[in-house]
Amino acid sequence: MIRKYVYGNPIPTPAVVQNIEAEEDSVQYLTELEMNGKIILNYSMENDDIVYGLGEANRGLNKRGGLYRSFCSDEPNQTEDKQSLYGAHNFIVITGMISVGFFVDCASEVTFDIGYTSSNILNITPGCGDFTIYVIEGRSAYDIVKQFRKLIGRSYIAPKWAFGYQQSRWSYANEDEVREVVKKHRQNGVPLDAVYLDIDYMDGYKDFTVSEERFPAFPEFVKEMREQGIHLVPIIDAGVKIEDGYPIYEEGRQYQLFCKRADGSDFVAGVWPGKTHFPDFMNSNARMWFGSKYKTFIDIGIEGFWNDMNEPAMFFTPEGVAEAKQYLDNFDFNTNEPWKFFELKDKLTGLSNRMKDYESFFHNMDGRIVRHDSVHNLYGANMTRAAGEAFEQIAPDKRFLLFSRSSYIGSHRWGGVWTGDNQSWWSHLLLNIKMMPSLNMCGFLYTGADLGGFGCNCTRDLLMRWLGFGIFTPLMRNHAALGTRKQECYSFGDTEDFRSIISIRYSLIPYLYSEYMKACLNDDMMFKPLSFVYPSDNFARTVEDQLVVGESIMIAPIYEQNAVGRYVYLPEDMLLVVFKSSSVRRYQIMKKGMHYIQAAVNEVPLFVLKNKLLPLCRTAQSTDALDTSMFEIIAFTDDNIEYMMYEDDGISKNYDDPAHYVPFAIKDMDGVFGAVSPKKIVKLALF
Amino acid sequence: MIRKYVYGNPIPTPAVVQNIEAEEDSVQYLTELEMNGKIILNYSMENDDIVYGLGEANRGLNKRGGLYRSFCSDEPNQTEDKQSLYGAHNFIVITGMISVGFFVDCASEVTFDIGYTSSNILNITPGCGDFTIYVIEGRSAYDIVKQFRKLIGRSYIAPKWAFGYQQSRWSYANEDEVREVVKKHRQNGVPLDAVYLDIDYMDGYKDFTVSEERFPAFPEFVKEMREQGIHLVPIIDAGVKIEDGYPIYEEGRQYQLFCKRADGSDFVAGVWPGKTHFPDFMNSNARMWFGSKYKTFIDIGIEGFWNDMNEPAMFFTPEGVAEAKQYLDNFDFNTNEPWKFFELKDKLTGLSNRMKDYESFFHNMDGRIVRHDSVHNLYGANMTRAAGEAFEQIAPDKRFLLFSRSSYIGSHRWGGVWTGDNQSWWSHLLLNIKMMPSLNMCGFLYTGADLGGFGCNCTRDLLMRWLGFGIFTPLMRNHAALGTRKQECYSFGDTEDFRSIISIRYSLIPYLYSEYMKACLNDDMMFKPLSFVYPSDNFARTVEDQLVVGESIMIAPIYEQNAVGRYVYLPEDMLLVVFKSSSVRRYQIMKKGMHYIQAAVNEVPLFVLKNKLLPLCRTAQSTDALDTSMFEIIAFTDDNIEYMMYEDDGISKNYDDPAHYVPFAIKDMDGVFGAVSPKKIVKLALF
Q1: Where does residue A392 rank: exposed (0-12), middle (13-18), buried (19+ CB within 10 A)?
Q2: Looking at chain B, which residue has its C-alpha nearest residue A337?
Q3: Both B244 and B378 in a single domain?
Q4: How many domains does chain A have?
């Protein structure tokens, strides 16, 4: 049961697809308070209530004890105190004696104080008085999530090749470096499906251009790579370089498609290209125009993109620089006062992503002029929409890989997200684990983190352990920043360990893709907290670091340095499978309860659920090369069971064809259990 | 067996007290390499080797997988990538098939690459060619630590009152605020022994002055507080304000006791008072002079001090400011180049703690002129020494509370350390846990972290859980920074939970103090990794988050938000005691092996070891009020056992009087086990 309540005159967002009549009476469950002119929606939590949600947010799977500010922010240093990350996903579910969900559809900032100021008080504070709130009642948290997911519509569906292993770095300098990356993966037998082109592939960081110097024959190069099973995935930044003669700049100016200052001039912000204008993604013409530019790349065979810097991140604005300059001109460098120097530093570091700048430009929302801060959280989302809608025009029957750094609920229908710039910290591996189900709750199914960490130097063991989790995430991309240690799989010695771990991924792809597709098509989650699958198990409610992935497996990633294993809780008997490679495994039936499982750095444990079946195919060097005519089956049952695998061509959009479902079954055949399927079963490991 | 190897002509440090003849041949166990003119001492680790040590350092108890740079640094943001914290403790023990320890006695920076660049390679790189290395062979890691501790001499011994609960904040503004803090603790029944005076108690941040405005009758106020059982503990900063007529400044100038620039002028650095000179703590006259100043406070009844800002931290120098100014004067604010703005920011943020500044001043080491960077890690240590040696002069038979932010091995003989500015992060609670045994290895026994975290806002549950660990650390101080949420125990509601948790501490003080004293007097550790106590238990080697505290108990603190308990590993059968307050407890005998123990936020679990005995006294509102004539005994045995409690007046220095040892025993008395002791046993919980 979903009820909708409208406050003031909300700016429309693309979040919701169902038409629900607004209630007339006051909002259920929440008490309205007012403070400093803002409405606070207050809820008293019980001691044992858990609060799920908030998608790409910091801290735990259970969000209690934190303060979260939905305000899309370029924040790579995700320490525990950080309140805003790259996305803004205002959906929470409180679950305990009763379960209730809230979705605050509000384009400006919203804060969630979830037992932070006072242990049992939840306060939701929208940044302005104009917003819509949806109140969702249901039998359980999971039931509420499923209702919510129907409310916001079917998630973007990635092509199957996007389930391959992907390698990125800011930046591979030129054709030869990319060739070298591919060659080294192939030489070492490390499977690979995609290489990313970070900002330096462009000519002067100009969107939809390619540096002639670095990639002199780009169309041919795209083709060459494709022949080796590699997709090149270029980055597209939000800001359009101000440069006379650059067509995108000229067109944007001419057709008034950029964000404006109060005086009507085009707003200027400094990002990678230097001074840029921001396309007004809130405007449908601007979206259509910018989206159409992706065609340049699509026409030469590019099938995937990542949209970046679209919070939008700003390094500086001329106004900010002028203020800083004036401050500096008046600064008394002879001061004896330390606070003055702290202020001086703050003035300079504060040049980036200034709130004052966000308050100084305007969008034309198809006639309605709105100041940026009131729709800040929609900006990146609408860039994703621009691309997604364009793809539907350019190639209506084809799926593209598309994901974004900034996002808002609604943009999940046009693209995925990666979790933004992170660090080579073990704590960020754990954060990655905890974010996955939260992102799924909010509709983001094609998602993952920068494996190994973007900033800072990664160690061998961290990358191994992170890959050990990453082999389960739809987006499996290794990415690292300029100036950090090389992070490709062949950079750490004993490359066979990396080959093995990634080979496991490729064996799992048919299962992972199937579970991903079913989650997409049924508005369901692929990554679930234990409590969603075992709702009557009180201990399962408290587990933050184990996840059920699809219908057949539970994972318990190891995320601590020097650990030889970890504790796990099994809500029922399960089959432990420790993979050393796609084909080398050990098995152990484990009883319901608590255990310590051992897994070396080069091993990946997973658990097959009771009465479930896990199909594995033979590994390959790329998704193109996967042979899905033959399967090995691991099953933990002594009864008839069935697994329905979803399989399609992975690129076209006829998702709903019933022919895409392939049954696998364990059946009693004259007193002996065996596996049957239209596929060839080459091996059965039955427990 | 300790061997000493001397490279070049090392600057003397106060680290070692034993006179060992230097070996003539080349260093054992290590391979000498050379890179960029620096000597690298290289060691090949086995896969299963554990590396302990480094005292106050980042990351795990097992230091493998990290890069550590010993270079005392003002670094409150202790994220995983940070290589330098406040202390420099160059002692490591490698333990596996063989065990060997290394102590690099080197006053300049030293880096330890412990499987960071390459998983099994350990590289020690002293910053210069002049250093001494001690190689220690032993039967076990613990044996090596004990040899090392004898090498570096008996640790500083704190007064017993310093085991009371202590409250701090930057800053309590004046007398009335301090009175209010004390009153609220007393009113709420929260025990308290000390209140700290952070920088604002001073007159213009001038060392050894008191603001007349804030504390108009300071000597009377010290007395008033003492009558309420409260010790006031003032901060002493390293920098001496440049102000005509300020006696300390005038004397320092007159007698040439400040650090000098190359041109012989007094080096200037901006810290809290604005421009200051740094006392030349490397010089024995300067130490004696500065140390004598503590008498001002001692004469009016002050018995404890904390030395701060002595890395030394610098906010700016005139040279740095001039450079920044010049840079700014030449900066093209019309630039279109983002990197220029990043450089601009770096220029300003880089004003603090500039390496160039550390390279620009000099010490007079009793005749030998040395540049600061070559003795950087000794500066804070020698400030501690200045105070410690002064106390011995001022009141030879009396113990003072003294701890420092910066430290080097050697300074552990004159004072303790707190682990410096940290954050209200759960990860810093865990870091606190992991640091304790490492600090003990390096001689720092009187130590602890800012409970609840210094920077950022603390939540109720974080403070509760942190106190749940803090009740075991010798220094138990709640401290928070300017601008953060109030963090006193009465600031979060339901204060009885805080009263209860701190009441447990006071019941434990006789045991904790006894174990602390025995560790000090025997050059032993109070906080031990499990592997030191159960060396033949292979799993115990891997446990990072459980510690043996003294001879009778093991602790397993809960350090995750929203956790209802945690997993523990018991290397033998143990008695779980969950304290809800000093007197309300539940008991459970637990078998060797793995368990999940539950403990609510307002409960503290501990484990009594097999055949050990834990004495508890009745709790009190301050250490003065503790009645140690009566004890309750918890014991886990069915045999005769004995516990030797160390007890003295807690303030004088006749440590070695045999009368200080009080035996407690469980004995078979006519077929019934009972407790006997010269003390009155009011209750026996025998398991």
Answers
A1: middle
A2: B274
A3: yes
A4: 2
Q: A183 and A142, same structural domain?
A: no
**Predicted local confidence at residue A166, as pLDDT:** 98
Contact B493 A459 (CB under 8 A): no
Q: Do A315 and B342 touch (CB under 8 A)?
A: yes
The reply to whether residue B336 touches residue A270, judged by beta carbons under 8 angstroms, is yes
pLDDT digits (tens, 9 = 90+) for A262-273: 999 999 999 999
A227 domain residue, yes or no: yes
CB contact under 8 Å between A62 and B348, yes or no, is: no
Residues from chain B that touch A50, judged by Cβ atoms under 8 A, are 562
Residue B39 CA, distance from chain mean position? 30
Which residues of B, range 47-76, sit inside 8 Å of A by Cβ?
A: 50, 59-60, 62, 64-67
Give me the CATH number covering residue A437. Answer: 3.20.20.80
Residues 69 to 128 of B: which have CB under 8 A from any A CB?
77, 79-81, 115-116, 118-119
Alpha helix (H) ranges present in B119-267?
Answer: 141-152, 175-187, 218-227, 247-254
Q: Say whether residue B339 is in contact with chain A using an 8 A CB cutoff.
A: no
Q: How far apart are CA B479 and CA B463, in angstroms?
A: 11
Within a domain: residue A275?
A: no
Same domain, B93 and B115: yes
What is the percentage of chain A residues whose pLDDT exceeds 70?
100
Portion 417-436 of B in contact with A at CB < 8 A = 423-427
Q: pLDDT averaged over chain A? A: 97
Tens digit of each residue's pLDDT (9 = 90 or more) over A322-343:
999 999 999 999 999 999 999 9
**Are residues B128 and B219 located together in one domain of the fold?**
no
Residue A7's domain comprises 2-152
- A590 and chain B: CB distance < 8 Å anywhere? no
Does A345 sit within 8 Å of B348, measured CB to CB?
yes
Specify whether the CB–CB gap between B354 and B73 falls below 8 A.
no
To the nearest whole angstrom, how far is the Cα of A47 from the nearest Cα of chain B? 10
Residue A251 pLDDT greater than 90, yes or no? yes
pLDDT band at A69 (very low <50, low <70, confident <90, very high): very high
Q: Which residues contact A485 (CB under 8 A, 6 or more apart)?
A: A457, A458, A491
Average pLDDT over residues A624-647: 96
Tell me, yes or no, whether B175 and B120 share the same domain: no
In a 3-state reduction of DSSP, which class is residue A323? helix
- Picking from A118, A348, A424, the nearest residue to B493 by CB comes out as A118
Q: Are residues B147 and B123 in the same domain?
A: yes
Q: pLDDT digit string (tens) for B485-516? A: 999 999 999 999 999 999 999 999 999 999 99
Half-sphere exposure (Cβ direction) of A451: Cα atoms closer than 13 Å: 28
The verdict on a CB contact (< 8 Å) between A79 and B77 is yes
Residue B399 belongs to a domain: yes
Q: What is the pLDDT of residue B670?
A: 87
- Closest alpha carbon within chain A to B317: A336
pLDDT of residue A669 exceeding 90:
no
B594 contact residues in A (CB cutoff 8 A): 567, 594-596
Spans of chain B below 50 pLDDT: none
Q: Flag if B564 and A544 touch (Cβ within 8 Å).
A: no
Residues B169 and B57 in one domain: no
- Name the closest residue on chain B to residue A271, using Cα atoms: B338
Provide the shortest C-alpha distance from residue A36 to chain B (in Å): 20
pTM greater than 0.90: yes
B363 interfaces chain A, CB cutoff of 8 Å: no
pLDDT value at position A671? 86
pLDDT for B317-336, tens place per residue?
A: 999 999 999 999 999 999 99
Residue A52 lies in a domain: yes
Instruction: Give the ipTM of the model, two decimals please.
Output: 0.97
Could B425 and A79 be called an inter-chain contact, meaning their C-beta atoms sit closer than 8 Å? yes
Long-range CB pairs of A649-654, under 8 A, 24+ apart, other chains included: A649/A160, A650/A159, A650/A160, A650/A161, A650/A399, A650/A513, A650/A623, A651/A159, A651/A160, A651/A161, A651/A398, A651/A399, A652/A397, A652/A398, A652/A399, A653/A157, A653/A396, A653/A397, A653/A398, A653/A399, A654/A397
